[in-house]
Structure prediction request, 690 residues.
Amino acid sequence: MSQFIQDLGKSTRTSFTKLGRSTYFLLQTVSGILSVLLRPRLLLNQMYSVGVLSFLIITISGLFVGMVLGLQGYYTLSDFGAEETLGVMVAASLVRELGPVVSALLFAGRAGSALTAEIGLMKATEQLSGMEMMAVDPVKRIITPRFLAGLISMPLLAGLFSAVGIIGGQVIGSGLLGVDEGAYWSQMQASIDFQDDIINGVIKSVVFGFVTSWIALFEGYDAIPTSEGVSRATTRTVVNSAFSILGLDFILTALMFGDH
Amino acid sequence: MLNSVPSQDNLVSVRNLSFSRGNKKIFDDISLDFQRGKITAIMGPSGTGKTTLLKLIGGQLFPDQGVIHVDGQNVHKLRRTDLYNLRKRLGMLFQSGALLTDMTVYDNVAFPLREHTHLPESMIRTLVLMKLQAVGLRGARNLMPNELSGGMARRVALARAIALDPMMILYDEPFTGQDPISMGVLVHLIKSLNNILGLTSIIVSHDVHDTSAIADYIYVLSEGRIVGQGTPEEIQRSDSEWVQQFMTGAADGPVHFHYPAKDYVDDLMSTGNRY
Amino acid sequence: MQHTNNQDTLVGIFVAAGILGLFFLAMHVSNLSSFVEEDSYTITARFENSGGLKVKSPVSAAGVKIGKVSSISFDPKTYQSVVQMSIDSKYNTMPDDTTASIFTAGLLGEQYVNLEPGGSDTYLKADGKIEITQSAIILEKAIGQFLFKSAEEKK
Prediction:
């Protein structure tokens, strides 16, 4: 029993140490933003590997999720004779929840794990410490551009996901199941509020992009520089990002939509 | 040796350095001097913290005790910007080369120039090609690091290390894992760079033969202490048993062949417990 | 350098597509397009019961949206619901004897204000009042009445 308490104390302490290290890391990362903005080339290169390479998986997933929502929504709503509101249902669930959350989960799996592996391997092959010896701050030169790219890409990807999903829902709903196209769009426009739904969705995805990039980059930077260490760090990135995204989504939803 | 004021002849002076990792003492109160314009080698078996010493000199690690002066500046008292300015004048050659894997050879060599100077691209090109020519790899400029052999990667890293015309280069195990030809090339390069550019070199190595061929002065480290020092000839003639074992590569001697264990016979005879 | 150029193009396409997606959400999915406060004028109507009407609910005439509800408040003296509507100033020829009713789109759909023009020659002006109103049909009430009536008939 005392052993258990000791272990618990030890692991709590380790977690706090890690939290402290990651906060310091985040501050270092953020402090480099200005210098990255002065060198947009660095950012552009990372936008490619973080954003463009996630583009396809996000669009395709968005399309399918929208189509499924169209089907499921139709069957549920037609029981109440309310097929006309299919557009509202598809758009609301995508814009508020599924768009930001699912695209962030996919982003963590696609771009986050790649970032961790990349940074971890750079550490393992002494590239980071080599850079330090060349008087180049690896956090500013390597980490910050990736962080910023993640932060910018995430809302764009989530927006794409929702947009493609809504179109997918419309294709199924009015193309296949015969919901009136005009009603699909007009009911949607009447119910989806720009401020409450779209802007809040974008805020969510910015938060998720921030957290996912932070986790991915920190895990890579903090990885034990061996092949096993890097592989564990990659797993941790995906798991921790997923937990953080879902947990934060609950908190954000409660804050944003709670007072209605 | 014991005077604490660093002499002008020494580019780097290490005084009473102690450093430990966990419970393991890696350096125990050692003092070393590295003369300007000379090649100084630090030798010793693997695991004696030779690379750690280089990281301490470069300011990447902090000592538990002792001071390290590089060019008259106390490395661990410098502010960050000053430390970075000092590092711009140091080149370090990592064991793995530490080339940036997402850039070509050309961009790797150009990297420190692009980061630290505002030279126009045409001048960077000239400089890069000159450095690559010096290591004989001007023709390989468009290759990616994963297309290079170990020896070539190290030569590219050397070209990168001299890109900013440093005053000193730290070599971390430059000869490990090289075939005889690339080894010969590297030995020749280090020697000639030192003479032509007037560099100061610190080589960390456990390769006795090739290192003593080019070093002006050698320190032999073991278990956190200096067990021998002198010119290669003095080291060869050293009467320290330990140094003799290291230089000749005898399997048993002061450094035991066996990892510490309990008595052999007892160990074999005991039954029951698995270990 | 060709490589970098291609890469830049792809990044450009990605960013453009992302912004287009967000723009689509804003303009085509949400109510932002009807948000733009063009010239509009406000009229007020008093209802006995405004039911599930909300701020931003549509105001339409002959099935066409001509404005939206801008505020709903309770008048503690008359115990009525005071509904302010902003009407697009393009439609400035609504007669002053217009009837305002609260309808429901479909059985479970959103509630909206329907304006039924009367025959008067004078038009409603800014801050004008609609005198004739018809309250929202409260579904529970209607069902209750219906059940009560059919039970009466059976006797």
Summary: Chain A has a mean pLDDT of 90. Residues 21-253 of chain A form one domain. Chain A touches chain C through 38 residues (CB under 8 Å).
